[in-house]
Amino acid sequence: MLQSLLADSKLFLILTIISIVLTFADNLNFLSLPKSVIQNITIPIQYGLYKSSGEVARQFEFISLSRRASQENKALKQHLADILSENTILLQKLSELEAAVEQEKVLSSQTFALINARPIGINRFLFIDKGSDDGLKLNQAVVYKNNLIGQISEVSPKKSQILLASDPDLQISAFAQNPAGKAKGILTGQFGSEMLMDKILHSEAIEVGDLVYTEGTEIDIPRGLVIGEVSQVLSRENEVFKQAKVKPVIDIKDLGLVFIITN
Amino acid sequence: MKTFLFILTLAALFQTTFLPVNLCLIIIITRSLAYEEPLNYYLALYAGIILGILSSTNLGIYGIIFLANVKLAHLLRKLPVTANVFTVVVISFVLFLLTAFLEMIFLKNSINIQKILIESAISLPMFIIIRIWEERFIVRPNVKLKIRE
Questions:
Q1: Domain Rod shape-determining protein MreC beta-barrel core spans what residues (chain A) (predicted)?
Q2: In-domain check, residue B146
Q3: Which of A42, A263, B54, B74, by CA, is between 20 and 30 Å from A186?
């Protein structure tokens, strides 16, 4: 064991001395010629390897950047969708607020207690998203600005059904106003978008273009709400009363918000 | 030996072009820890000279550093703790740290602890690969059943 240890150390010392000799020889530039000859061969190889490694690294970097860009793109698309959704909600709220402000100008909150509601469906009846939980009751008037939309015909806790002014089941006492005077009658729905004002005396003046208002004789429907505009006057000499066709001034399908007069 | 000379040449090329780790020293230290042979000294000198040429530094410096590492590895190998294979990582860390210190003195290179940790981590799989490679021709004795008469 000692012999192998000594042999080992001897080899170590010899090789270390060779290294020291090489160090001094290189310091004194004795090895510059053989070094330059060998480097003429190794430098192009090193250059080729370096360039190839750069290309490979660029490819991996491209893949990594593509992946990151794809993830960022996905996140940005999600963010954009969230912002668009938020924007839609904000725009809706803004239009509701504007409608509420407009409503306040026409029907003052000091005179009428109003609850706003969104239409959620329409067929024969208009459905809104508020119900008895929100303080709504049967027969309350539904308006938009100073236009009468209809009357609540059914109430559930979260939803209500509105009987429209154009529904034949709703009869409202109304009057038409023009410079010549006032004409009173009973307004009945005809389905579709037309209404018929009946029981108008021949002596009372009514013309096409006159606005028709609520008389206010029904409970819960105040006086002075616009129901529609006279589109045709039907007058026959042999009839006791004359009639007038009335068309609504607003399209219910365009409404984003309606108001219920609770008091 | 020819295989290791070729591998050390390749390792020196990779080390001086794009890899930031000291591959040559990893191979030399792990081989010295695996087998105590005079061949390790020759490989260390060769690696030192090749590295000196490829990195345009003084030819003999790396030779001296690598030879010192081989000698220390042979001495540390004799300790009882080296029976556990994971001590390769600890011994490698110490030797890399010593090498970095010597490089700082002779070559004015700064010490990079992160690089030393990476090299220490690589030394264990390298040690296992070298053991597998060197023992590939060793025939394991078959278990024979003895029939009692």
A1: 115-261
A2: no
A3: A263
Chain A touched by B45 (CB under 8 Å): yes
Our count of domains for chain B comes to 1
- The answer to whether residue B76 is domain-embedded is yes
With beta carbons less than 8 A apart as the criterion, state whether B122 and B93 touch: no
The answer as to whether B7 is a domain residue is yes
Q: Which residue has the tokens 């360039």?
A: A51
Q: Are A233 and A242 in contact (CB under 8 A)?
A: yes
Domain A114-261 in CATH 2.40.10.350: yes
Q: Is A39's CB within 8 Å of B14's CB?
A: no
Predicted structure pTM score: 0.55
Give the model's pLDDT for residue B30: 93
Tell me which H or E stretch contains A148: strand A147-155
pLDDT in tens, B99-123: 999 988 888 888 889 999 999 999 9
List, for residues A199-258, the tens digit of each pLDDT value: 988 888 888 988 999 988 887 888 889 999 999 998 887 888 889 999 988 888 888 889
First to last CA, chain B: 49
Residue of B nearest to A19 (CA): B60
Q: Is B99 exposed, middle or buried (0-12, 13-18, 19+ CB in 10 A)?
A: buried
